Structures are given as C-alpha cells and as structure tokens.
Amino acid sequence: MKILLLDLGKKLRGGQRQVYYLARRLHRTPGFDPLVALPGKAPLRALLEEEGIPHIALPSASDLNPLNIFSFFRIVATQQPDIIHTNDAKGATLAALAKGWLGEFKLVHSRRVSYPLKARSRKKYMAGDALVAVSREIQEVLVEGGIPKERTSTIHSGIDVERYTTEKRHGPLLTIGAVGALSSQKGFEVLIDALAILRDEECIPDWQCLIAGDGPLLQQLKDRADQQGISRSILFLGYRDSREVLPEIDILTVPSVDGEGSNGVIKEGWASGTPVISSDLPSNLELVTHEHDGLVFGNRDARELAACIVRLASDPALAGQLAANGSETVARFTDKVMADKYMALYSSLLS
C-alpha cells in the first residue's frame, strides 16, 4: 500500500513529529510503502534521512504557489499513491486540489487544532474520504462545521516513550516548568501570573521556573514577568528539546488556553515521570484525570494554577503518585498505538 504523507510545516513542532512517527512505523511495517512530501528546507527532513524514510522535496511551504502545485501534481501522477494523508492546513488545501484533478486515490486529512472550521476551509475538508481529529473535541468541531460524521474519527497523537528518561537532575530549587511555542494559545501569561502569586507563599520551598520554547510572545512574556517582579525567578531557555529540559523539572505546567489538539507535552511529562498540572480545556481532559495522573485547574485561572503548584510542592507523596499513574496512562498514547490506528483506517478505505 503506497502512502503519500504531506506536511508543509516549516518548523519541527508537534504535528511534524507525528508525521515522523507515523512514517517510521509505516516504513517498518511490511505491506506499507510510505513517501513524505515536504518543503525542501523543512527540519523534518533530517529525521526522515536518519531513518532512511523515503521523502521528496517541494519548492516551498506554500499551498497556492503555482510551482508547488505543479510539483505536487507531478509527484502524485508519478508515484500513484493509494492514500494521500495531509497533516496541516496548507497541505490539506494542496491535496484537495490534487483530488479534484487527479482523484485516483483516497484522501485522508488530520486536523490538530480545535478552532471552529472556517467556511472557506470546509470545501477542502469535504474533499477528504476520511477526516481524523486528534481529539474528540476536534471531531465534534468538524461535525459542527458541516463534515458528515461518518467520515470523521478520532486518533490521538502519540509519542515514542523510549526517547524519554525518568531520571531526574534535581537542583537546590524547586523547579516549575513549561514547554511549548510562545504563542497565545499556550497560555504562558497565565503561568507568569500564577508565579507572581507564589512569590508571597511561605509554605513552599524556594523555586525557579524554566520556560522552554520560542515564538512571537517572548518579549511580551518577559515584560509581564518584569512587571510582576519575578523576572529573576524565570529562565526563558529558547527552543530546547523537551528531553533535555524535563529531567530538570519537578512540576510540569500546561496552561494552554484554547485551540489545543492532543497535547504532546502532557504525554512527555508522563513519559519522563514528571507530575503534570494542566488547564481544563476539553482536549486536555481527554488525557488527564484530575487527581489520578495529574491536577487540573480552571482555564485562565492563575490563582487556581498557583494553588495546584503549592499542593504538589507541599505533598511529595501526591506528586509521586500522579507521576507513577501518568507513566501507566501514557501507554495508551504511544506512537505505535497511533500508527496502528492509522494503518487500520487506510486498510478500511481500500477494502
């Protein structure tokens, strides 16, 4: 079965890692023949090359660049895939165009954000034979946007748990942490406001906060920390692989405020044996069970987030139990589980 995976992302973020995990699993499974189409300068390319996964470069990351359209149509006509599987919004546009002109394949779209479906996006998603949401919330959004329910399904994103270590590098300070793009949906301003509340707490040990990630809100977040008088307690690390940072973190916070898909940082926290605190976005609640494998606080509620941090800092037994349970929960969200579900979907489309 020939599978053409398409991703036009220019950075290596959660969606691109999912493409890598899926392509790797397909490449290792008899009966599946994957090919990844991606921009020539995409960092995902290096991961594919390390695994020997076949891939082909597109001229740009644009969905409507005429040269990109021509190149992709030529790839489709030459390779004649059984399935084209898109993994980002621009890729969905490009593949929908190919479906209209060269429709001798089944088209699968994966959608990774929970924002409402825009009217102009509906047409490209309607071109899909199957639409995969990475959370039940996103599946509901697709149906509410007019996509027939029978074409939709939910397959949560997965991680390779073997890439993470549970060994910790504890320092002299309690280390609170967060990992992710410094963009509005990740809610890091809520974390900074919560940390300002912690400044006046006397029942927890001295602390620091590590924020790993880059993005357009870096200076705004630094300014907010300075205004709150806690800039000396927060280290903005820039982009760092989560595997480098998680061993240093005692409490992992996931304060995302909207648009979340199937949060990879939560799973990475579980895989690294780190207690997790997350906001109560519906997609996060599909993963975290409050007081079992994490603590949950009200979305945008900095005071409640601060209280959760105090609770874990003051109760090592609870923190340890949450981490232990998280290590069991993450087994349901591995890259293997995710890829096996996609392979079953592909087979059903061609049966």
Task: Give your account of this protein's structure.
InterPro entries: Glyco_trans_4-like_N. Residues 14-163 form the Glycosyltransferase subfamily 4-like N-terminal domain. The model has no long low-confidence stretch (mean pLDDT 96). This protein has helices spanning 14-28, 44-51, 66-79, 89-101, 119-126, 136-144, 188-198, 218-227, 242-245, 264-271, 282-285, 302-314, 316-329, 335-350; strands at 2-6, 33-39, 55-58, 83-86, 106-111, 130-133, 152-154, 174-179, 207-212, 234-238, 251-254, 276-279, 295-297. It is built from 14 helices and 13 strands. Helix content is 42%, strand content 17%. It has 2 domains: 2-158 and 334-350, 3-Layer(aba) Sandwich (Rossmann fold), CATH 3.40.50; 161-332, Rossmann fold (3-Layer(aba) Sandwich), CATH 3.40.50.
CATH superfamily of the largest domain: Glycogen Phosphorylase B
Under the CATH scheme, which class of the largest domain?
Alpha Beta
**What would you call the structural class?**
alpha/beta
Low-confidence stretches: none
The shape, in one word, is elongated
CATH T-level topology of the largest domain? Rossmann fold
